[in-house]
Amino acid sequence: MLIEYQLPLTSKRADVILAGRDRRTGADSYLIVELKQWSQAELYEDDAELVLVSGMGDRPKLHPVVQVRGYCEYLADFVGALDQHRNAVRGVAYLHNASDPDIHDLYDHVEGERTRLFSKTRRGQFVDYLKAQFAPESGAEAADRLLSSAIRPSKQLLKVAAGEIKNRDQFVLLAEQRLAYEMVLHAVEKAGAGNSKQVVIITGGPGSGKSVIALSLLGELSDRGYSALHATGSRSFTETMRRVVARGSTRMKAMFKYFNNFMTAKPNELDVLICDEAHRIRETSANRFTRSAARTGRPQLDELIAAARVPVFLLDEHQVVRPGEMGRVADITAYAHSLGLAVYQVDLDAQFRCGGSRKYEEWVLRLLGLDGGAPEAWTGDDHFTVSLAESPYELEALLRSRLEAGYSARMTAGFCWPWSAPNGDDSLVADVQVGDWARPWNVKGERAVGNAPASALWASAPGGFEQVGCVYTAQGFEYDWNGVMFGPDLVYRDGKLVTVRSASKDPALMRRGVSDEQADRLIRNTYKVLLTRGMMGTTVYSVDPATQEFLAGLLEPRG
């Protein structure tokens, strides 16, 4: 019996996994048991995927069988020992405080060959089911094989997104992810049936699955015949979607837009507008290329909400890194309410980046002073590696060794060095200099320079490792091993980390309208983004001696 089993590369835990030998075949067999203390529950507006639970408010919960089914599929996808034995994993939802009459309609449309639902009324049937599944012998060896199995690399977004849109079966949505997905589908159906309009907000930290949800929704909604588009405020992210996800399909490329593409959209022209990376929403869509006649001053948020019957906003407030970005829950909610629109919010609490280490994400927030806490020593996590490099040479060498071992790896830095145009011989200028070590920033534009990929493909294309990435290029992406260089814009002084605005070379922070308080927050958020790109581990280095010494006190140096 494995209690509180952590699903690979996530922070989600299955309540119990029973491991044993299959009574019929003698092969390894596993049963995931999701325990619910609910005493009464019913379907949410006859939706077989959602339920309302008595005493837990009026917000719907994910049907427990749908939840455990997702766990089964996820485990089979990520545990190497189960690669060719998906049917070895089954699931049960056990509502041990509920009688059948109190949950009677939860049995509709949920049971299948691999998932079942039991209440306390059916305890005897549950026991019989267990006896039928497992042979009367020890399951210790089966449990050991599960625990020691190789974990296949996470299905990173860009590698499978094309299949996600075409087939909609590349990702498994877990718990709150599936809840968010079902809430959007429910809102779309309800808006269509009632000729109404609703707003959905989905919040979550790095790697919580926001973009996975966005692409899953785009594929499903398109398959159902709804008019749906995906939009972001990030050139790197949108261009990557167009080039990787929609490669070879002009029609599919047209499904990926920018936030400022909706300035002239007709009201409710779309059924759904999926606003990914919504923390990048700007005050207005106008920029220096906008014709004067189109400079109406209309808020970009108004344009996005107006464009679809169901606008969906996926965001992380700690990733606001530029002045003028307005994508906060309070901003969106207040604006929607001012229009008389209902707002539904789902918060994703799972962690799929950083090895599923919620501990690491909390450590980063404390380190940067973003949660009100004080920095603390890193005490380790079996699911994620954090270390300190003693020089930029060591940082690069470590990451290169990971790359040569078949992993993805990238190095990023705070925006503290100039960013030059390419040389005349089609080479990049080595702007990022620390002593006698120097490397170029990633390419600025949309075309490759020599062997360096275009900006939008820096995080995923071959050749990207040879350049240092900045926050605007790294945001929204992930790689296995992450290296972060702290520049002189964030240093340790008088017992704490302080920001030094004058050390930043970011043009966005040089504007007169940006206050020192705003600059401080944006610099800290920048490092939050950079520090949370890795799937397996992060190594850091600071160019400032006092800061390097401070980090050494929190981390064990490598070697």
Automatic annotation (TrEMBL):
Query: Pfam families of this UniProt entry?
Result: SLFN-g3_helicase (PF09848)
**Superkingdom of origin:** Bacteria
InterPro entries linked to this entry: AAA+_ATPase, P-loop_NTPase, SLFN_3-like_DNA/RNA_helicase
Gene3D superfamilies membership: P-loop containing nucleotide triphosphate hydrolases (3.40.50.300)
Span of domain AAA+ ATPase? 196-325
CDD domains reported in the protein's UniProt record: AAA
This chain belongs to which protein, by name? DUF2075 domain-containing protein
Q: Which organism is it from?
A: Nonomuraea terrae
